[in-house]
């Protein structure tokens, strides 16, 4: 703990002649000088020792020292002055600058030695704390609890709120959990910290933002500035998180096709073999019955959701039909859509391995419905029954295959058709939702008519196409 003027005065028996209220300031160093203006030789935080040989105008002298940000004055008596000059004591009192009287029996070297020893002890304690903190973080990072465990460990080590934010600005982890609310105010500040670090005041706290390469940001918020040891510990955590996230990206890239293959096997007619393989290859995956969650959104949002599922051990996840499908023990849709923007989810609970094909299909259909209604989550159980549920999965799939076969290989046409039908044939609103010019949309719909060989003016064809498009997401045609 840094040595304060109050502690120094008590230890050495130095009378306080002014500035009592500021005695709790830490002393950064000690400097003895008889210059009338020593400002050029000071860095701030020093206890300045003098016997007042050059003291003439006390007010100007104190003003210069205050401007140089000295911690206080140690005035030696018994040599040039028998006592602290009243003018100096009065000026220091007005400025709130601590003024300690140094009796002749206490040589300046004793003060220098005391401060040097305190600083050395403080630096050693800081070094030990840094080393222990780095070791604790490294052990945590080497465990299997994911980045969230590193975030929680860091929060306890530096006694601050810690957030792990992805590249899109979504809070992935927060310690304590209530700290996630700080993420809403971070958006404008993240752009200036794409590389290196950034320090600012936000919501009454000092906030340190550390970029984690292209994977996101580590954010540390504390009421007071972090000390040197805490800053070193934060830097170590940032390096470990960068490595962990990069390793996670490489691992996901390698395991992604395997995950997708297992899910395809699960919904493709071999559910028991697929379920057994998932349990063997991914020991943390929950056993059926599952709560199935299908997530519809951009690639970055789906990756963020996969990372969140992985870090929280929330279930088995895989890309399937342009969506992220999660097989979880408990519902996770609200958590994922609440923490990651740009996602729409469909959910089905109580799905067995044998019913996985229907469960995944219904969850994906519900995710499409969530997007069309502009709501985060649609639960299949809350939906009114569809004619597709009356005819069964196989019949519905055969119907969709037959009707959509002419356009199924053109993703741009399928999405144009889906969006246009969802907006009841309104060109402007559909084009805006799709992000294209209305003339582009007209050309794509005209191409659909050419390939289908039928006019989309027919209400019956529109209804059939809409039903078929609800089946399409269940697999790649």
UniProtKB/TrEMBL annotation:
This is PucR family transcriptional regulator. Residues 14-119 form the Purine catabolism PurC-like domain. Residues 413-470 form the PucR C-terminal helix-turn-helix domain. Gene3D superfamilies: PucR C-terminal helix-turn-helix domain (1.10.10.2840). It holds the Pfam family HTH_30. InterPro entries: CdaR-like_regulators (IPR051448), PucR_C-HTH_dom (IPR025736), PucR_C-HTH_sf (IPR042070), PucR_dom (IPR012914). PANTHER family: CARBOHYDRATE DIACID REGULATOR, DNA-BINDING TRANSCRIPTIONAL ACTIVATOR ADER. It comes from Amycolatopsis minnesotensis. It comes from the Bacteria.
